[in-house]
Specification:
The complex is a heterodimer. Chain A is α+β, with helices and mostly antiparallel strands. Chain A has five helices and 16 strands. In chain A, strands 7, 8, 9, 10, 11, 12, 13 and 14 form an eight-stranded antiparallel β-sheet that branches. Chain A has a three-stranded antiparallel β-sheet with strand order 1-6-5, with no helix packed on it. A three-stranded antiparallel β-sheet of chain A has the order 2-3-4, with no helix packed on it. The relative contact order of chain A is 0.18. Chain B is mostly beta strands. In chain B, a hairpin with a 2-residue loop joins strand 5 (56-58) and strand 6. Classes of the chains: A alpha+beta, B mainly beta.
């Protein structure tokens, strides 16, 4: 049985630009087969295998669906509409892991020197300083702020090593967004997200997403950069044991650098969002 | 009777390397330090569950590839790169198994096992070969295809005709669900290349027969 709280959330199910006519994208959500297609009038529709239409929202280049009754509107991402930003769809990567582990990895900084070596991090610059984490009850989101990390090549447009500042945001159970120092504009943040489609508890499609101030770098290079980063992450995500994310303390050992992950797990557990989670220690 | 399981050949795990091994269904990371010390641990970093067999050896330590958490040969975590000035709590340790080498074979047993690994003196380690059939099916096939081999501690031993020569063969078995790895050792008789070809054709024969 899938908890109602899980069914009532929004999940990404397709890139809007790639949705075709019936039967469109035949995929699944929370283990249930669905079709994402364009109707004759041009609207995007999502149907279950029984032909039942479910709630749909189009936003941030993606189609979002809810199998139950949406508990709230889809999260706001005002930067997506900000003039001057380039929106970059980076395709989709299938990963054999819990959708929650994919989000948690996105929130993690400490792995940069070891998994994204010489790009997002490099030894000996491994220290993760204190940062602030909150579960913001007004928007029902997890936020981490004042995160700083030394990066050899923080973005495709970065020329050399810089200390990058980050903010992290869990905007939905399987969607996270980060705001990081923009190499081209000192008063703005680059926005990078991952939208994770839970196909099953241990299988997901991950859509990286970017909204950048970068008028120079060719689109293909931006996509290659993001795909390189995410494929490095995939080699981790498919080799974590257990496949499901443990929500109970004891199974895994966090440190101060993992405060975002601790808050994310606590938030999931409190909300009963246990799809893809291991609740009782094995 | 021995509880030790052949888990690889010594020569296939050079210093400063780590590999994965399946021990009775338990995933293990087996690694050799720069100075040659061998360790076998549960293949899971206690931090975030990443397989330690994907990690890297530096000197006398194994580090997890995910966040670089570093463990000494006792299994204790000695360094957490995200907090370089902190001494890791003693409670953070890898889970250890017994591991030793005898006759050029890496042997693994549960902690404090009282038995000894098999004596395979007189045989030279040749190579390992994985056959896509379970252990029982493999033993049945070998009884038919290599009747000169009889069951001995840890696997099979006996005389096989290879390239017209009576050849002393020792096969140590490492079963895993639907496949079995053979650690092949040979004594007097045919040369290594001939024994290797014999083993490969035996594998094909057994796999072809068990193919659906």
């Amino acid at each position: 049985m899938i908890p109602q709280a899980v069914l009532d959330q929004w999940y990404p199910v397709a890139m809007t630009s790639l949705v075709g006519p019936w039967p469109g994208r035949e995929t699944q959500l929370l283990g249930r087969p669905i079709m994402v297609f364009k109707t004759q009038s041009g609207a995007v529709s999502v149907q279950t295998a029984q032909g039942q239409a479910v709630a749909v929202t189009l936003a941030y280049g993606h189609v979002w669906a809810c199998l139950g009754t949406p508990a709230q509107d889809l999260f706001a991402l005002p930067e997506a509409a900000q003039p001057g930003r380039r929106l970059v769809d980076c395709g989709v990567v299938r990963v054999k892991c819990s959708p929650l582990r994919a989000v948690e990895n996105f929130l993690d900084i400490a792995h940069f020197p070891f998994v994204h070596t010489d790009v997002l991090g490099a030894e000996p610059h491994t220290e993760v300083g204190r940062y602030e984490v909150q579960i913001r009850d007004d928007v029902d989101e997890v936020w981490a702020t004042k995160v700083h990390f030394y990066q050899p090549q923080a973005a495709k447009s970065a020329a050399g090593g810089i200390v990058t500042e980050y903010m992290y945001r869990v905007a939905a159970p399987t969607a996270a967004v980060l705001y990081k120092t923009c190499p081209n504009r000192t008063n703005e943040w680059d926005v990078i997200g991952i939208f994770v489609q839970p196909l099953a508890e241990d299988l997901c499609d991950v859509y990286p997403y970017m909204a950048l101030f970068d008028d120079v770098t060719p689109q293909a290079d931006l996509i290659h950069f993001q795909q390189m980063i995410f494929l490095q992450d995939r080699s981790i995500l498919e080799n974590q044991i257990p496949r499901l994310l443990p929500l109970d303390p004891g199974m895994e050992i966090p440190t101060q650098a993992d405060l975002t992950s601790v808050a994310y797990r606590r938030w999931l557990k409190r909300k009963g969002l246990t799809y893809g989670a291991q609740v009782v220690a094995a | 009777m021995t509880n030790w399981k052949a888990s690889g050949l010594s020569k296939d795990l050079p210093p400063a390397n780590v590999m994965h091994a399946d021990w009775q269904g338990v995933d293990l990371a087996v690694w050799r330090s720069a100075s040659g010390r061998l360790s076998a641990w549960v293949d899971r970093c206690p931090h975030r569950g990443m397989r330690l067999s994907h990690g890297f050896v530096r000197g006398e330590t194994l580090a997890c590839i995910y966040h670089g958490w570093t463990y000494g040969v006792t299994g204790a975590c000695t360094h957490i790169p995200a907090h370089p000035d902190m001494t890791p709590p003693a409670t953070i340790t890898a889970t250890r198994f017994e591991v030793t080498e005898r006759g050029g074979v890496i042997w693994i047993a549960a902690k404090d096992d009282p038995t000894a690994p098999p004596d395979i003196a007189g045989f030279q380690p040749l190579r390992s070969l994985t056959v896509q059939v379970g252990e029982q099916a493999l033993l049945q096939a070998l009884a038919a295809d290599a009747p000169g081999l009889t069951e001995a501690e840890g696997g099979l031993r006996g005389t096989v005709q290879i390239a017209g020569l009576d050849t002393q063969i020792c096969l140590m078995l490492q079963p895993k669900a639907q496949e079995t790895t053979l650690h092949i050792l040979c004594g007097a008789g045919a040369g290594p290349a001939q024994v290797s070809r014999w083993a490969e054709s035996l594998r094909r024969q057994i796999e072809d027969r068990s193919a659906p």
